[in-house]
Write a structure and sequence with these properties.
By secondary structure, the chain is mainly alpha-helical. The protein has 4 helices and no strands. The longest helix is centred in the C-terminal third of the chain and has 31 residues. It starts with a helix and ends in a 13-residue tail after the last helix.
């Protein structure tokens, strides 16, 4: 385990921050641009994974396991979000035969 921490610390912290920012930006763009509900949920998962990466790296760099504990809570939250989100997507698809987010406006009536 010590060699893993050493390998993580051998890469500069700025590289992890830039990588996480890129992944988070891809997720934000996916949420804002795409219209497919499944792609939107995958983009939200990308954003959560970018945060998980940063929490893990900061935890290793500061020799504090609290960040890794938060990662487990975020992973549990993401699993619950996926389960509920997929159930909602299945119900919307059954009612509208489409996964387009704009079609959801028809469900108001």
């Amino acid at each position: 385990m010590e060699t893993l921490a050493h390998n993580i610390q051998s890469i500069p912290l700025n590289h992890y921050i830039i990588l996480s920012a890129i992944i988070f930006s891809i997720g934000v763009m996916g949420v804002l641009i795409r219209r497919n509900a499944i792609v939107i949920f995958m983009s939200v998962e990308l954003m959560l994974n970018a945060v998980n990466l940063l929490l893990t790296v900061f935890s290793v760099y500061h020799n504090d396991p609290n960040g890794q504990v938060f990662v487990f809570f975020i992973m549990a939250l993401a699993a619950a979000e996926v389960a509920i989100g997929l159930a909602i997507i299945v119900m919307v698809y059954r009612n509208t035969n489409s996964l387009d987010v704009n079609v959801l406006n028809r469900l108001k009536n």
